[in-house]
Specification:
With 185 residues, the chain is mainly α. The protein has one domain. It is 77% helix and 0% strand. The chain is elongated, with a radius of gyration of 20 Å. The two termini are 14 Å apart.
């Protein structure tokens, strides 16, 4: 099995970084869930919060890397315009231009929606993920052990954290399906 440079970037973006973010969500959610006054001692709260600070900042960093790589490295390859009129290209030639393969290719009636809805939605919703993840990380860093006694604040952070997860899952799902329909080669 051999992967091109572009395919390696796609693997790093989606499977490694995106997968890490989505997988780490469970650990972060458990960290928030366990910060209850009846479950932790003061010493235990300090240790839990330290892990939560490191984890949320790591997740925010990974989210930023994922979105930046997707937007500034992979996305230009997806949107690349052929130098020839797409109508004059064969399906095999058009596959080198994923956006045009989806919107002008032989199955455009079936695949244009992957670009028209999927990619357009994905490229915008994905930016919510690092913004929300960073907000959560900074609030966790600011309030630290006070989170144990602030149930409303914990719930708000879990909500923002969950919205970031759902946005990442949606963007990742669309990305996987779009890459399946028109891979970046």
């Amino acid at each position: 099995m051999e992967l091109s440079t572009r395919e390696w970037w796609t693997v790093l973006h989606g499977m490694v970084l995106g997968g890490f973010f989505l997988g780490a969500f469970g650990a972060g959610l458990a960290g928030f869930w366990s910060l209850r006054p009846e479950w932790v001692t003061p010493a235990g709260a300090t240790a839990c919060v330290r892990r939560l600070v490191i984890g949320t900042f790591t997740m925010a960093l990974v989210a930023w890397l994922t979105v930046i790589i997707g937007s500034y490295i992979i996305y230009p390859w997806y949107r690349a315009k052929p130098s020839v009129d797409p109508a004059k290209m064969t399906a095999a030639e058009l596959q080198a231009y994923p956006k045009f393969y989806l919107t002008k290719g032989p199955n455009a009636a079936r695949t244009a929606g992957w670009h028209d809805f999927g990619m357009e939605w994905k490229e915008h919703v994905a930016w919510l993920v690092p913004i929300l993840a960073t907000a959560v990380a900074f609030v966790v860093r600011r309030y630290r052990t006070q989170l144990v006694n602030e149930q409303t604040l914990r719930r708000m952070l879990v909500l923002l954290f969950t919205i970031a997860f759902l946005a990442a899952a949606a963007a990742g799902g669309f990305g996987a399906f779009i890459n399946k329909a028109a891979a970046i080669r």
